[in-house]
Specification:
single chain; mainly beta; 35-stranded antiparallel beta sheet; 35 strands; 0% helix; 72% strand; elongated
Length: 551
Amino acid sequence: GALTAQLNATVEQPLLAPSWTLSLTANSQDLGLFVPDLAATPMALELHSKGQLTDFSATGELQSTIPQFGPLQANFELSGTPQNLHLQTLHLQATEQPLKFDLAAEVDLASQAVKANGSWQALSWPPGSDTPQIASPSGSLNVTGTLDDFRADLQTALSGEQFGALELTLKAIGSQQELRQLQLTLNEPDGELEFNLNGSAQLADLSFDTTADWQQLRWPLTAAAQIISPSGSLTAQGKPSDYQAELNAVLDGPQLTPLDASANVKGDQQTLRLSKLQLQARDSPMQLNAQAELALQSLDFKASGEWQELSWPMTGPAEYQSERGQFKADGNLQDYDFTLESTVGGRSVPSGTWQLQGHGNANALNDLQIAGDTLAGTLQGAVQASWQPQVSWQATLDGTGINPGEQWPDLPGKLDFKLSSQGQIESGTLRAELQLSGLQGQLSNQTVRGGANVSLVGSELNIRQLELQAGQATLSASGALAEQWNVDWQLAVPELRGLLPSASGSLSGQGTLGGTAQQPQATAKLNGRALSLGELKLARLDGQIQLDLTG
């Protein structure tokens, strides 16, 4: 059957002073009939006991095979009297893995006092995994006392892909009513990281008082650290109906300048308030301040902040800079508003002052207004975008009096233009359109006009219209870059000097870009007169060109 068992027992003086000798063997090939999670798991049990009610002993051995661990063997030795129980040993070992667990315990039945000592090797989670998320190569746990006065001490080594090798020590002293003392320490055996936590708690009202401090905390722990906290501290006290916490830390990193960070949090069962969040650079005027409030039931929020002299990266030449800025946001995920005002600039970003104002919900950004003063002109934009039930957008951007020469000195001018775009992702396919209209003004002392109308469906680009005019020079193109490429273009430059001050002469031409994306081909017919560019001079150019652009 599912279980076979044999019991041999002898009982003497059962009514006066019973004593016994007992042997039990049991075997099963499928524990799943009793415990569904242990389907197809075999088990063999052997148990021996002898003694009397005033003094007895028992020994046993259990063998089984569990998929996560393979073959397992457990042995125990137990003795007892009416006053106490004594587990001399409980030994569990995986015969094909290094997993071991040992436990010894003693219980005073009158006072219910417990004294237990456990140790282990090669614990891991998930069990039996070749790449466990967390492992404990070794550890021990000692527990003494009663429920009204206990002490527990834990020491263990930890390892994991996300945090490397750590040593953890935990001490807890308390009762059913309170945790009088909690001490936790984490450190690296071969590193500088150290984390300490001390606290206490009243279990009746869940009040607590906790402090923590650390040295050389960093993330990630097992790779080149991106964020480092050389030192810091955290205090927290209160109860769920009224609590507060304070954080002070030093932050650093490869792209960070040393920062002093501080935060104050207060809250209750209805509201969480971040009354202060401050980042202050130690060697520059960079500073960030923020405040926030969150209603825990409705998830309504308010947030605001301001900054000065932000840059990124914070070390070395900055790619982006913001001399000053501020933001506000309020609402909830179904209905929120926000505003942002900031100066922005950088090596590849024109300096300017920007204002953003928007309204949205969990599925869409219904109304985003953008205003910027940059490149000696103004930009005005509007965006409507959604990401549920599908990604779609409509956007416009109008430029007035834009001077590219503010950022690129070789291109002085004053341009007006209108850009618009709309699109969506439908059944995994991107569909987008871009229109440029009203391009007019001056560029490099040339009158500029132009427009464009381009659409994209998946990877197919359709150039419906592309027309640019600078002075007397014109460029036009139309066609498609799809499975087969077919784009026609025409170019006419009566005087090159108008576009390139270092060049002279006239150039005209027309051609086609064909082939495929894998094997593009280009053909062109060019005509030029009195061409000059630096030391290159050509009195006349008449020719046809065929190019294989495969590379």
